[in-house]
Structures are given as structure tokens and as C-alpha cells.
Design goal:
This is Integrase catalytic domain-containing protein. With 49 residues, the protein is an all-alpha fold. 57% of the residues lie in helices and 0% in strands. The protein has three helices and no strands. The termini are far apart.
């Protein structure tokens, strides 16, 4: 998370930091492919697609 989210953007407030982290978590859950589960996104794997 530090390399891909926190260090790539500078949050100017605590609220902005929270939004950036929430967006990154959403990306990791909904879109990012994970090798540990044979490369689908976790959301896709849970939906059985």
C-alpha cells in the first residue's frame, strides 16, 4: 500500500488521505488481479465469475 498508494500521492489533509486509501482499497478489491487466487480480482472470485 505504501509504494502504490501513499508514496505516489501527497494528501493535503487527513480527509484527503482517507479518500485516497479508500479508493486504493476499492481498486485492490474490485479491479487488481491477485496471483494468490489465480489472477482474478477478489470481487470476481467471490462472485464466482
Amino acid at each position: 500500500m505504501k509504494m502504490e498508494c501513499i508514496r505516489t500521492k501527497v494528501a493535503l489533509s487527513l480527509e484527503e488521505a482517507r479518500i485516497q486509501i479508500a479508493d486504493y482499497i476499492r481498486y485492490c478489491t474490485d479491479e487488481r488481479l491477485h496471483s494468490g487466487i489465480d489472477y482474478p480480482a477478489p470481487k470476481t472470485k467471490l462472485e464466482g465469475l
